[in-house]
Specification:
It holds the Pfam family GCV_T. The protein has nine helices and 19 strands. By secondary structure, it is α+β, with helices and mostly antiparallel strands. The chain has four domains: 30 residues; 141 residues, Probable tRNA modification gtpase trme, domain 1 (Gyrase A, domain 2), CATH 3.30.1360.120; 81 residues, Alpha-Beta Plaits; 121 residues, Beta Barrel (Elongation Factor Tu (Ef-tu), domain 3), CATH 2.40.30.110. It has a six-stranded mixed beta sheet with strand order 10-11-12-9-3-13. Helix 3 packs across helix 8. The chain is globular and about 65 Å long. The N and C termini lie far apart (86 Å).
C-alpha cells in the first residue's frame, strides 16, 4: 500500500506536468491574428493557402494565383494591407525627427503627399524602406515592413513629438488595376479623380473618413485606403458592391508579388536583408547597394548613416549592386546563382518570373561589384528545372536590363483613365 500511495502522487504530478505543457504549447495551434477584413477574406478563401504576415493570417492566394495576377492587370484587385506596420508621428518636431532618421528631405514633402523612403543605422546600412504620408503639417503616417517602435522612440528623445503604433487601429486596403479609379468613383468618392500619383486626401465614409492615396505596389493604376478598424467591413462591402460590374476581385500575396516584380520594386528581407535581421556582415546593404541611392538628399542636415554613406562613396567601398536581369528561355530563375563566364559565382537571384506583360523572363539579383556595375557581359544563371521527374541543371544567359521591366502609362495618367 505504501508503494501504491507513493506512485499515485507521482502519476498525478506527471499528468499535471503534461497538461501544463500542452496548455503552454496551445498557442502553436491557435490561428494567427485576423485583420478587420478577415470575415470577408475567409468567406472567399477557396485555396486555404495562408502565411504569417507579422503575426496575421494572410493569404498567399484566395482562389487562383494566376487569375488573381491577371485581375491586377486587367480589372481591379483588392488586397488587405492591414498587417503592414503603421506609425503615427505627430507634433511640432515631427518633420525634424523624420528628416533626421530617413534619407529623403521631408521638408519637401507637402501635406497631402506621399513619398517612398528608407532609413539606416549609424553605419549606413538599411534598416527598412517604406512610405511616408504627410497627413497634415505636423502629422505623418510611416508604413513599413518591419517593426521599429523602440528605435523610433529612442530616436525621438529630445524632439517634441508623439510616436504611436497604429497597426491594429487602422485597417488598410490596396485597390489596384485599370478599373480601380472607376470602382472608387462608382462607390461615391467624389473628387477622387483629382488625386495625382502620390497624392492623398480624406473622403467621407460610414459616418467617418477614409484616407485614400494614389499609391501602390504593382506599377499599375491604383490606390491605398486607410480607415479606422471599426469601419473596415463597411468599406470592403462598399468597394465590392461598386466594383461588381468592373470585375473587382480579392487577391493574395502571390499575385501582388508578381506585379511588384514586373514593376521592379524590392521587398525587405526578400531582395535585401534589413540591418536588424542580418546575421552575417556580408548580408548588410547600404542604400546605393540596393538601388535606393536616389533617395539620399545630401543638401539637407545630418541624418542617420550620412557619414558612413559619404565615406563608402568617396572610398569606393560599395560592395554590391542590385540589378534587373533578362534571362533567356521561359523558365523562372528563382533563387538561382549568377555566374560570370559560367565559372565564377558573382551573385544570387532574389525574385524571378516569366512576365506575361513584358513577355520576358525577368529577375532581380544582387551581384558583387564590379559585376552588374562595370562588368555586365557574359553573365549566366544556374536553373534547376524538373524534367520527367528529375531535376536538370540549365545554364542560361542573363543580360542586365533597366527596371521597371514594364511601364504602364495608366499608372501616372492624370486624370486617371476610365476603363
Amino acid at each position: 500500500m505504501a508503494q501504491a500511495t507513493r506512485k499515485k502522487p507521482v502519476a498525478k504530478a506527471v499528468g499535471a506536468a503534461v497538461s501544463a505543457r500542452i496548455a503552454a504549447q496551445a498557442h502553436f495551434r491557435t490561428l494567427r491574428l485576423g485583420t478587420p477584413f478577415q470575415p470577408r477574406i475567409d468567406a472567399l478563401a477557396r485555396t486555404q493557402d495562408w502565411y504569417n504576415w507579422a503575426g496575421y493570417r494572410a493569404p498567399h492566394s484566395l482562389w487562383d494565383e494566376e487569375l488573381e495576377y491577371f485581375a491586377i492587370r486587367s480589372q481591379a484587385a483588392l488586397f488587405d494591407i492591414s498587417p503592414m506596420t503603421k506609425y503615427r508621428i505627430e507634433g511640432p518636431d515631427a518633420e525634424a525627427l523624420l528628416n533626421r532618421v530617413t534619407l529623403r528631405d521631408v521638408t519637401k514633402l507637402k501635406s497631402g503627399r506621399v513619398h517612398y523612403t528608407a532609413w539606416c543605422d549609424d553605419e549606413g546600412f538599411v534598416l527598412d524602406d517604406g512610405t511616408l504620408f504627410r497627413l497634415a503639417p505636423t502629422r505623418f503616417r510611416l508604413c513599413s515592413q518591419e517593426r521599429h517602435l523602440p528605435w523610433l522612440l529612442d530616436s525621438a528623445i529630445g524632439f517634441d513629438v508623439t510616436v504611436e503604433e497604429e497597426t491594429e487601429a487602422v485597417a488598410g486596403l490596396a485597390l489596384q488595376g485599370p478599373t480601380s479609379f472607376a470602382v472608387l468613383r462608382d462607390a461615391g468618392f467624389a473628387g477622387v479623380e483629382r488625386l495625382k500619383i502620390f497624392d492623398l486626401a480624406d473622403f467621407p465614409h460610414d459616418g467617418g473618413t477614409v484616407t485614400i492615396s494614389r499609391t501602390g505596389f504593382t506599377g499599375d493604376l491604383g490606390y491605398e485606403l486607410f480607415v479606422p478598424a471599426d469601419k473596415a467591413l463597411s468599406l470592403w462591402d462598399r468597394l465590392m458592391t461598386s466594383g461588381e460590374l468592373r470585375g473587382i476581385r480579392a487577391i493574395g500575396y502571390t499575385a501582388l508579388n508578381r506585379a511588384r516584380l514586373e514593376a521592379g520594386l524590392i521587398v525587405a528581407n526578400a531582395d535585401f536583408t534589413t540591418a536588424e535581421h542580418a546575421i552575417r556582415a556580408d548580408r548588410l546593404r547600404m542604400p546605393d547597394e540596393i538601388g535606393l541611392g536616389f533617395m539620399i538628399d545630401l543638401e539637407k542636415g545630418h541624418f542617420n548613416g550620412r557619414r558612413a554613406i559619404l565615406e563608402a562613396r568617396a572610398k569606393r567601398k560599395l560592395r554590391y549592386v542590385l540589378v534587373g536581369l533578362e534571362i533567356e528561355g521561359n523558365i523562372p530563375a528563382e533563387h538561382a546563382i549568377v555566374y560570370h563566364k559560367k565559372a565564377r559565382e558573382v551573385g544570387l537571384v532574389s525574385a524571378a518570373m516569366w512576365s506575361p506583360m513584358a513577355k520576358r523572363n525577368i529577375a532581380i539579383a544582387s551581384l558583387a561589384r564590379p559585376y552588374g556595375d562595370t562588368m555586365v557581359e557574359d553573365l549566366w544563371v544556374e536553373i534547376y528545372a524538373m524534367r520527367e521527374l528529375q531535376y536538370q541543371k540549365l545554364m542560361k544567359r542573363a543580360k542586365v536590363v533597366a527596371r521597371p521591366f514594364i511601364k504602364l502609362d495608366r499608372r501616372t495618367a492624370n486624370p486617371p483613365a476610365d476603363f
